[in-house]
Amino acid sequence: QVQLVESGGGLVPAGGSLRVSCAASGLTFSTYDMGWFRRAPGKEREFVAVISWYDSTLYGDSVKGRFTISRDNAKNTVYLQMNSLKPEDTAVYFCAARRRGSGKFAYWGQGTQVTVSS
Predict the structure, then answer these.
(1) Within 10 A of 62 (CB to CB), how many other CB atoms are there?
(2) For residues 4 and 96, is the Cβ–Cβ distance under 8 A?
(3) Secondary structure (DSSP) of 23-67
(4) What is the DSSP letter of 84?
(5) Tens digits of residue pLDDT in 58-114
(6) Which of 8, 34, 50, 118 has its CA 20 to 30 A from that of 56?
(7) Average pLDDT estimate for 46-54
């Protein structure tokens, strides 16, 4: 079965950097778009970034210019490099997989907590 496992979350001071990873298994990784989403306490889930199976990227407005999504198809892993972190970036970060050509992210990880202290 498909599994997405996030790692790399933690506590970081404002202005700092953190990289979270998502290891995928059970799917043909190179044929999937991979996305990052986040959910802050009391808020709805928010789109963060997506990287397509052919390496095109798209970012949410709140992270544009600070976050970078990348993928390593040899390792079945997608990364989210987060720089210039702000307290409002505090959230549980989830990765998700969408088969190319599909309109829906069908697979989700369990999430990793990122906390940015002020």
Answers:
(1) 14
(2) yes
(3) EEESS-GGGEEEEEEEE-TTS--EEEEEE-TTS-EEE-TTTTTTE
(4) S
(5) 999 999 999 999 999 999 999 999 999 999 999 999 999 999 989 899 999 999 999
(6) 8
(7) 98
